[in-house]
Amino acid sequence: MKLMLPDQSLSSIYQALLGLDIPSSISDSLALIEVPYVTFDNREEKGQLVIHQELAEEVTALFEELYNQCFPINKMVPLVEYGWDDVASMADNNTSAFNYRKIIATDLLSNHALGRAIDINPLQNPYYALNGEVYPANAIHDPSVPGTLHRDSAAVFLFKEKGWTWLGDRDTYKDYQHFEKL
Ligand SMILES: [Zn+2]
């Protein structure tokens, strides 16, 4: 499924959820937010995220702080632009939140499906799955590269301070791009 959308910002949460058949308890709980970010080549951009309403204000403030710290972000558009294909979004180094999907290689609904998880710069912050796969393919986690999340990065402290869990410091697997708050 490839949705044809104009190459511009989405105007409403309804537009951001096009093509999905999901429980209204979920769609009614989501918000579309717009946040500023700095790109890797130092341009100022506006990005959009679909996130649980309860987290909308906090997530806006968190990304405003990343913007103030000049933490670079490659791109930020909702998953509808990728026809809900997470692998395509990661390959495009896209930062995103809501996606109605299961955890890769499992039957468990991801916290992304509740709008309670965010993936930042997948190319700098790959997901090293238990099955040995790396997403996106060929990505390398190098803490010296800007836009990378690591144990000592200000961005990780910022999210943790607000009660978010970062999956980059798990012992079993590493999902460096992923923050979640339930
Ligand atoms: Zn994630």
Structure description:
This protein is of the alpha+beta class and 182 residues long. It has one domain: Muramoyl-pentapeptide Carboxypeptidase, domain 2 (2-Layer Sandwich), CATH 3.30.1380. It is globular. The protein has helices at 13-16, 24-27, 53-68, 86-91, 154-161, and strands spanning 30-38, 44-52, 117-119, 127-128, 134-135, 165-166, 174-175, 178-180. The protein starts with 12 loop residues before the first helix and ends with a strand. The chain has a three-stranded antiparallel beta sheet with strand order 3-8-6, with helices on one face. The protein has a three-stranded antiparallel beta sheet with strand order 5-4-7. Strands 1-2 form a two-stranded antiparallel sheet. Helix content is 21%, strand content 18%. The chain is built from five helices and eight strands. It binds zinc ion.
List the SSEs and their pairings.
Blueprint: H1 13-16, H2 24-27, E1 30-38, E2 44-52, H3 53-68, H4 86-91, E3 117-119, E4 127-128, E5 134-135, H5 154-161, E6 165-166, E7 174-175, E8 178-180
Antiparallel strand pairs: 1-2, 3-8, 4-5, 4-7, 6-8
The structure holds zinc ion.
In short:
This protein is of the alpha+beta class. Helices cover 21% and strands 18% of the residues.
